[in-house]
Design goal:
By secondary structure, the chain is mainly α. It contains 21 helices and no strands. This is Putative proline/betaine transporter.
Length: 467
């Protein structure tokens, strides 16, 4: 068994967790959380509209499903307050265990729910789905910030941005795992089998991953930076109040610094999957519905790209590999160039990408694949540094609460409503996705303003109890 050790830097005090344990604990937790989250996101597009909602047409059912998808983002700020309170009051370790347990149980139970087509469950099935989705959001609301703090508060001097990429890697890894399971199921099962019971498998098997994550996290010790707060007796009685009193400006800036990152990711995953797998013609849509054994109403039909579910998920997984690679690349770049300078350049590139999004996705398979690779590479470059940037905005005593609130309020502004807005813009333009890309550009410009108003955080004293 590895033993705790002290890293001889100006930023650590007392015993720390071994580097390998930090990497595994921060990475595996977010990978599991994002696996759970993306399993729902994929199902919300592919099967939940017809299983849990009984709207009059395809578009209304899809919008209803995406609305429930957004419930988790509303829950995430609540989770950030709840878990941030305990993370800044009792410590990072116990809070991380609680967040993982909550989300894991909720995800498993989604796989057990009856559908709206089960007699007597027309109302209760979607209602319980909303409850489980809310619990998923609560768990993830506390997960990310704790994992980021676990990584960065155990980092050697000059390596926080590198260590901060470990929890960020959970997003591409969780996405690949979740959607890889869907691809395998799609190949192994007929459309009718997948519709009847195959969709449950990712949710049910997630409980095994949760057990592994809990085992790793129980072996952690408290982070040295927070232990310093405990030893000094400077724990905030109500971290939320102290955060709003002493760190309202960093919370505001952090929220808008994250805005474009959220919009980009959910455009490149949830929306592109919707657009890519929607049949290109009414006849094709009718045939797909008949093959899956579900009703079809041509009212409200929107033309998409017409890829099969398996083909587009495979293309998306390839794109997410680039997301993972550039997440790793972003850490050393942020140390060398500075967090702020790197993010300003990447955000400007995101704004340009929004303007060419429709051109790429209307250019055939080569254009679609190029669009996925470019968009998800930019996602890695903007998401990677956030594991260090947001926590660095705050003093240790309110770091869990402040970074969690910024991260998760941004999820409401940038992600909760984004998939619904994307579909609405797509529908308003009669199948064109130009305005979808323009929406990304607008949010990138807002993020640029926030970055210009902020300062680089790479040289802050990370063990400062108050700031």
């Amino acid at each position: 068994m590895a033993t705790e050790h002290t890293t001889p830097t100006s930023e650590t005090v007392g015993p720390t967790n071994p580097r390998g344990r930090v990497i595994v604990a921060s990475l595996i937790g977010t990978s599991i959380e994002f696996f759970d989250f993306y399993a729902y996101a994929t199902a919300a597009v592919l099967v939940f509209p017809s299983l849990f909602f009984t709207g009059a047409d395809e578009t209304s059912r899809l919008l209803a499903s995406l609305a429930v998808f957004g419930v988790a983002f509303v829950a995430r700020p609540v989770g950030s307050i709840l878990f941030g309170h305990f993370g800044d009051r009792i410590g990072r370790k116990g809070t991380l265990v609680g967040s993982l347990l909550l989300m894991g149980i909720a995800t498993f139970l989604i796989g057990c729910l009856p559908t709206a087509h089960t007699p007597g469950w027309e109302f209760w099935a979607p209602a319980l789905l909303v409850v489980m989705r809310f619990c998923q959001g609560l768990g993830l609301g506390g997960e990310w910030s704790g994992a980021a703090l676990l990584a960065t508060e155990n980092a050697p001097a000059g390596r926080r941005a590198v260590y901060g990429t470990f929890p960020q890697l959970g997003a591409p890894i969780g996405f690949i795992l979740a959607n890889g399971v869907f691809v395998v199921l799609s190949l192994a099962l007929s459309p009718a089998q997948f519709q009847q019971w195959g969709w449950r498998v990712p949710f049910l098997i997630s409980i095994v991953l949760v057990a592994i994550g809990l085992y790793v996290r129980f072996k952690l010790i408290e982070s040295p930076a927070f232990q310093k707060v405990l030893d000094a007796g400077e724990v905030a009685q109500v971290p939320l109040v102290r955060a709003f009193r002493t760190a309202w400006r960093p919370m505001l800036l952090g929220t808008f610094i994250m805005l474009a990152t959220y919009v980009l990711f959910y455009m490149m995953t949830t929306f592109t999957m919707t657009y890519g797998t929607t049949p290109a013609t009414v006849d094709a849509a009718r045939a797909a519905a008949e093959a899956a054994g579900r009703p079809f109403d041509p009212a409200g039909f929107l033309p998409g790209l017409g890829y099969s579910r398996t083909d587009f998920l495979t293309m998306l997984i390839i794109g997410v590999v680039f997301f993972g690679v550039f997440t790793l690349v972003a850490g050393p770049l942020a140390e060398r160039l500075g967090r702020r300078r790197l993010l300003i350049g990447v955000t400007a590139a995101i704004a340009v990408f929004g303007l060419v999004f429709s051109t790429l996705f209307d250019a055939g398979t080569v254009g679609v694949m190029a669009g996925l690779v470019v968009g998800l590479s930019l996602m890695g470059l903007t998401f990677g540094p956030m594991g260090a940037v947001l926590p660095e905005l705050f003093a240790t005593s309110v770091r869990y609460t402040g970074s969690a609130i910024s991260y998760n309020v941004a999820s409401i502004l940038g992600a909760a409503v984004a998939p619904t807005i994307f579909v609405a813009l797509w529908a308003a333009a009669d199948g064109s996705v130009f305005w979808v890309g323009a929406y990304l550009t607008a949010t990138a410009l807002i993020t640029l303003v926030a970055l210009l108003l902020s300062r680089d955080t790479g040289d802050v004293d990370y063990t400062s109890r108050t700031r």
